[in-house]
Each structure stands twice: as C-alpha cells, then as structure tokens.
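Pasting as-is:
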Amino acid sequence: MHHHQLPLSARILPVLLFILSGLRVWSAQLVWTNTAGGLWSNATNWSPNAVPGAPDSAVVTNAGTYTITSSAAVTVSDLILGATNKVGSPTLLISAGTLTVTNTTVASNGVIYLNAGTVVSAGQTVIVGAFNQASGIWQLKSTANVNIYNFTNGEQRGGTLTVTNFNWINGNLNAELDGDRIVIPTNGVLNFPGVATRQLSYYSPATRGRGIDNLGAWNWGGDSLLYGVGAAIVNNYGAVTVTNSGIAQYIYSGSSPVWNNFGTFNKAAGAGTFYFDNVILNNYATLSSQTGVLSIYNSTFANAGTISANGTQLQFYGTTGTNSVNIFLGASTTLTLDSGSVLTFTPSSYLFAPAANAVQINSGSLALASVNVTTPSIWINGGRLYQRTNIAVNTINESAGALQLEVPCFLSQLNQTNGDVQGRNLTVTNWNWSAGYHYRGTPGYNTNDDRTIIPPGGVMNLLTAAARYLSYFSGVGPSRTLDNYGTINWNGNAILYSYGVVNNYGMTTVSAAGSPQYALRAGAFRRRGITTARSPVMPELYFILTLVISTTLD
C-alpha cells in the first residue's frame, strides 16, 4: 500500500492555527457588560463570558453608574475604567484580596475605591478620575499620575506619585526605595483637614522616609501632626498655608526630617501654634507668620531667605540656627529665644523689629555680627547676647543673663535691673543700673581694655538699694574698670562693690536718703572730677549725707 504524505505546510498550518487560537483566548480583551454592577469574579458579567486573568485586558467603559466588587486575588495586564464620552460613573471597589494591574487607565468619570486589601500598580498608571482609599495598601512599582486622591486611611507605598488634588485625611505614605515621593504639581492642591496624625515613612531597603515635593498649594487647615520618619524630606516650591487653631507639627520620629522651603510658608490664620519639631529647617524664600505662634523647636535652622512675622510670636526653642539674610518683625510681634537656643546673625543679615523688646532672649544665646539691626531695644531676660559688631541697638534692657562684648561697643541706653555685662569696652551714654555685675572678659585677655565708659555728656544712674559689682571673670582678676567722663547720679541707697578701679573724671552726685556705699574689695577709687553729696530734702545743702568708702581715696 502506498501512503501519500501531506506537504509540510499542510501539516504545520493546523498546529499554528491551534496555537494562535489559544493565544487569542488566553490574551483576551474582556468587556464588562452588567451595568447594574456585580462581582468581578462572575464570568457572566464579562464579554466574552470569562473572568479576566493575568495577560488579559479588563475594559469597563459602558455608560451608567455602577460598582464592580473585587474581593479575591486578581491579576490583569491592563485595566481601562470609564470613558469620557459616556454618561455615569463606574466604580471598581476592592473589598479584599489583591488586585495587581500592569497598566491602569482611569477616565475622568471612573473611580477606584480601595476599602480593604491591596492594589498593586506594576506599570504605567494614569488616573484622570479618582482613587479613593479608606483602608488597605496601594503599592506602586513605577510612577503614577492621579487627578483626585482621597486618602482617608491605610497605606500608600512605593514609587513616585503625582497628585493634582490630594485630600490627605489620615494614613501613612511610605517609601520602598530612597527617593520615592509624592509630587503636587504647579496646579495641584494638597489638603490637610481635621485632627489627624500622618506619617512619611519607609520600608527596607529604603532608609529615608517618603518625600513630598510641593509645587502647588498646600492647605494645612487642621490641628494635625506630620511625622517625618527616617529623615524624610519635604521640598516646598509652592505655597503652604497654615490655619490651625490648636497645635500642628512637622515632627521627627527616630531621626531629624528635613523641610526645605523654596516657596512660601505662611501661618496665615488661627490662634494655635505651629511647630517645626526636631527637624532641619532651611528657608531659601519666604517664611511668614501672621497669627498665633510659629515655633522652631529643638531643631536646626538656617535662613537664607526672608522671615516675615506680624501680630505673632516667632519662637526659637532649643534650636541652633543662623540668619544670613532678612528677618522682619511687625509692630506687635516678638522673637523669643528659649531653652538654650543659639541664634546667629551673620554680618550680611538684616533684622528689623520696630517694637521695643520685640527681641527677647530668655535662654540660650543670640550672636549679633550684623551691622543691619534696626530695633528700639533688645531684652535680655536670660541667656546671653554676644555683641560681635561695634554697632549696637539703641537700647539694651537687661533683667537677667549676660551681655557679652566681643568687640568694643557703643550703646545709647542700658537699663540693667540685673544680669551681667562682660568682655570688651562698653561706652554707654545713658545707663540705669539697678543691680547686677560688670565683669572683665576671659582672664588674661585684653587686660587693659575691658572697661565700662560713661562718655562726656553721658549719665549713669545708680538706682535702688540693691548691690552692684565691678568684678572679674571666674574668680581671676583683674577686675573691670569704670571710667566716668559724664555724670553719675547716686540716687538710691545703693552699694557698689568694686574689685578694681573707678576713674571719675566727671561729676558724681549722691542724693540718697539712706547709706549708699562704694565698697572696695580690691583696687581704688580715683577722683579726678567732683564728688558731692546732696540732701533729697534740702538740695541746696550738700553736707547732710555721707558716702561711705571702705578704703582711702587717691
């Protein structure tokens, strides 16, 4: 019997047809048909009647408002949800399980609602409609663009997510790799409403918390906390507007997060306090506060832009910082240094504070190296004012703490109710001295130069019965010298203790009602001018009171 063998092409063609037919079935485009809504896992809701699988495209574009519920493990290649030319709003609800999509496209009328479970966006993700997250995890393996993101709770993790309208009610934003971030574009809005705790954090192998790049408008309306975990970085290129009535904070967790302000940060309304708490705050543009308190708390601070505050308190608490450009304080504004803060004004910086005592040093130190300081007075209530330029403010009011002179300085008015003056020469025109010390500087340094000088035409008033001291630093002499070329009015029953020298070239007039004393512990009183004692009852009589001096005049 003879067998006739078919040609090779005839034998291969059926096999190819079978394979291609299988591929078409396996890589199908499945279209949702049930406009009443239903379960993703029900094959009869799709055309053809099959549940979309890993290589398939799930297409939900029929008109109508309906909900598709996914509650199992689902993987598809493509998801197309909604159509701009169709009426209604289809919603994909993830109530449990994991939905993994390589490429996601959601039209303006489409909504993804993550109520529980996980959504994994593995490839290109463009959501022109809305992503609503009440709980669960949204994991990005690549970049994503979302028009509306309503984040009520749960976790968003990984990738770079650009959101045009971001309502962050609660929940955590976490990085999977260093550099993962949220981007608010120039036309975008980020809203922080209500009382909540939000977190920028990370997962291994990332070591830095998720970042935020804000190029749009950030409305911080609630009394809320934003934790920066793992040195998270916020870069504000747009405008942050804070209107909290209670306490709002950008705060550390574990390590200091960073806030770089390249745009505008404005505490615009609300009587509450906004804290930058244990952070690294760098201002390159405008930092503004118009109400309540703006507190830079236990942080590191650098101002290379402009700080503007009016009708508010600008507080530095336990903070080390440098101002190298501008600080403008309004008429009813105070700048306070508390709890060991160290603030330095560089030579090129500018401070404008039109109200008396608008700058208050309660603890820590303020170093003034700037020649551009415009304010009626600075109040030293504790801590230390380092004077590093001979151009001082008009008036220093000192009730505690220290005025440390690192260069010779000229001062129009010194009202000293307590505290210390230390260091280089101080020439003061009007000096009301109620109590406190005038010290030398560092022992053995400037031994002929540390003195307090009352110039011709100047006045020193010794007030109250409290003790005053001319002394030396750390128990090592010599003592500070007082040179009077003007007038000393010894008005109170005051004791002036001296471990050094008083050179009186001008007028010293005593008019106390009790027993004032100049008590030399060491040194001398050198009278080069006139010393008189005047009765407060009969000013024309000069012999009634006695100035008691513990050593011999020379």
